[in-house]
Amino acid sequence: MPNPIDTFPDPVVGVPWGELGAIRRAARLHGRWHVDAVLGYPVEGLLEPYTEALSERLGAAVTLDLTFAPPPGEGVAGASHIVAVASGKGGVGKSTTAVNLALGLDRAGAKAGILDADIYGPSQGMMLGVPEGRRPEVRDQRTFIPMRVHGIEAISMSMMVTDRTPMVWRGPMASGALQQLIGQTEWGGLDYLVVDMPPGTGDIQLTLSQQARVSGAVIVTTPQDIALLDARKGIEMFRKVDIPILGIVENMSWFECDGCGKAHHLFAAGGGQRVAEEYGVELLGEFPLDPRIRESTDGGKPTVAADPTGSAATLYVDCARRIAGQLWRLAQVAAPPPTISMDDQ
User: Which residues on neighbouring strands pair with residue 341, listed in sequence order?
Assistant: First the structure.
């Protein structure tokens, strides 16, 4: 008879814990289950709801020990997993999404950082509230030490030039700058490095795929047909360079009217879900058209940092956890480790 803990479907990944190899130990003693589970996504804030869900499923009291252990990764030195956040076109909220996902991973209990790969239009310095004129420390005239802002590590060209300095560079020069940021930044043992990609499918995307082992890509879109068309191009580009698509994030999905309290789909509805189904990937999250998200990011304190318990921040944290969960699922081998189970009845 299988251990009933093995069949518990993981609330984030949707796959039973037994298949994921999540259970280190499980024993039933004197009518109470004692479960030691190790999950491949950050688990801050999940102990109580997971204990309740297990107890309800098993029909017995549960003592749960829940820990986070990310799967091994080979991103770059000092960062295990690289997650590229990309879009086929500009104006869909990709950079806002990227920084809030990095902050969401941190809030969920992981060590996270962000690399701004948009060489021509870097924005993460402003979004994170880095004062103009503050520069990253350079060690041995070669190695960049990323700045620590709102709990995450960050590096961006916007931290090395003024807000008014344009990057008037040809493609190879921009690619060379990205190679320097990738190869000469001393990350501090990150679980996840989020890379804010420029829009499109050009030199920077190819450089990242060639210079670093990217664990997966997240495609940001809006519900409009033209944005979805470009999102498909982004997906196809990453597939051509053998980078897994972790899922789709749909921005500006709805607007909630202050007067009536109803959700209005200004740019159509369900587009992100259709693209996700078309490519057999997850719809990782849907985010509202909310001026507070824009205001907080423009003010240098993104939503997750500005209002960590708010509804929008919760959506970002949940989305970040799903991304980590997809990486865990991809890393699983066919045969999970054995489970030690005891029952006194």
Answer: 26
